[in-house]
Amino acid sequence: MKNKNILILIISFIILLVACSALSMSAVASNPWNGVEGIAFTVGYFLHTGKTVSMLITIGLLLVIWWRLYALIHRTFIR
């Protein structure tokens, strides 16, 4: 397994946090967690799942997005 660049991993997490914060601010809320709850609500609405399953799917999606952000930033700046 290749070594992971911790700095880029942290930067990608911050970008994901900013994206959730922007989603939250667009809904006039005060904390980034509301953005995550909004994503969970959307997942539950379209997939007709319960609250727990919707939150698990949302967390999985956010982890995949975080990992892909890491890969994109790593590929762009580290060659």
Keywords:
single chain, 79 residues, mainly alpha, 0% strand
Structure description:
The chain is mainly alpha-helical. It is 80% helix and 0% strand. It has 3 helices and no strands. It is elongated.
The proportion of strand residues reads: under 5%
Helix segment tally: 3
| Secondary-structure content class | mainly alpha
Q: What average pLDDT do the residues reach?
A: 82
Compute the CA-based radius of gyration. Answer: 14 Å
Low-confidence stretches: none
Distance between the amino and carboxyl termini: 17 Å
SSE topology string: HHH
Described by strand count, sense and barrel closure, the largest sheet is:
none
Find the count of extended strands (DSSP E, 2+ residues).
Answer: 0
Shape: elongated
Kindly state the percentage of residues in helix. Answer: over 70%
